[in-house]
């Protein structure tokens, strides 16, 4: 049995035992993540439900393939949804203008688009060299160039900067050369 497909099919058919299994395996981690990031249990429940709905709707429309475990994929979807939710609430608090709320369908469509962009990015990241992966991992984690110099035995921070620049460009070129790029860059 292909585990991710089993769960996706179960979501689409609303198979009660599959949905219970998903909750048992994944919900605790989502509660922990949301709670550690300015949320409550109720927020985690909403995010989890949105993620399951998003996956079911997307799988029904296009039979996509999950290359990691289902739990890891679902957790990533939940993290992305929660981060979006936090960004929206930040805008609501700081913006005095009238806020136009999106319909649930629009929200799901945007979430699916963001997830597809994330998948394209992570797939491209897998195609670059191990050295570039390690450098970009540190760069994305906002590690200083001085630490990169030490870790990779570079001669100077300038060399580290150049290496980050080259690796970012390689990643960008891989993303842009993918056939999905043009359809995903809009919106």
Report on the structure:
By secondary structure, this protein is mainly alpha-helical. It folds into 2 domains: 1-104, Rna Polymerase Sigma Factor, Chain: A, CATH 1.10.1740; 128-187, no CATH class. It contains 9 helices and no strands. The model is unreliable at 92-102 (pLDDT under 50).
List keywords for this structure.
2 domains, mainly alpha, 187 residues, single chain, Rna Polymerase Sigma Factor, Chain: A, 0% strand, 9 helices
Compact overview of the structure:
The chain is 78% helix and 0% strand.
Number of strands: 0
CATH topology of the largest domain, anyone? Rna Polymerase Sigma Factor, Chain: A
The average pLDDT score comes to 83
Overall number of domains: 2
Largest sheet: none
Distance between the termini: 37 Å
Cα-based radius of gyration, to the nearest Å: 19 Å
Outline type: globular
The secondary-structure element order is HHHHHHHHH
Secondary-structure blueprint of this entry?
Elements: H1 3-12, H2 16-36, H3 41-61, H4 70-94, H5 104-127, H6 130-140, H7 145-152, H8 157-177, H9 181-185
Helix pairs in contact: 1-2, 1-3, 2-3, 2-4, 3-4, 3-5, 5-8, 6-8, 7-8
């Amino acid at each position: 049995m292909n585990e991710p497909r089993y769960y996706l099919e179960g979501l689409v058919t609303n198979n009660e035992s599959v949905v219970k299994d998903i909750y048992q395996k994944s919900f605790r981690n989502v509660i922990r993540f949301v709670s550690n990031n300015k949320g409550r249990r109720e927020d985690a429940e909403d995010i989890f439900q949105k993620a399951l709905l998003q996956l079911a709707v997307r799988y029904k429309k296009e039979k996509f393939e999950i290359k990691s475990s289902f739990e890891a994929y679902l957790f990533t979807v939940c993290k992305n949804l929660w981060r979006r939710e936090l960004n929206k609430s930040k805008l609501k608090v700081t913006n005095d203008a009238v806020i136009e709320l999106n319909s649930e369908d629009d929200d799901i469509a945007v979430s699916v688009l963001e997830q597809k962009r994330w998948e394209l990015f992570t797939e491209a990241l897998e195609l670059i060299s191990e050295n570039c992966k390690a450098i970009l991992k540190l760069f994305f984690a906002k590690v200083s160039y001085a630490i990169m110099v030490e870790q990779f035995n570079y001669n100077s921070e300038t060399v580290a900067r150049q290496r980050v620049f080259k690796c970012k460009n390689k990643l960008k070129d891989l993303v842009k050369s993918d056939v999905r790029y043009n359809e995903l860059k809009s919106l």
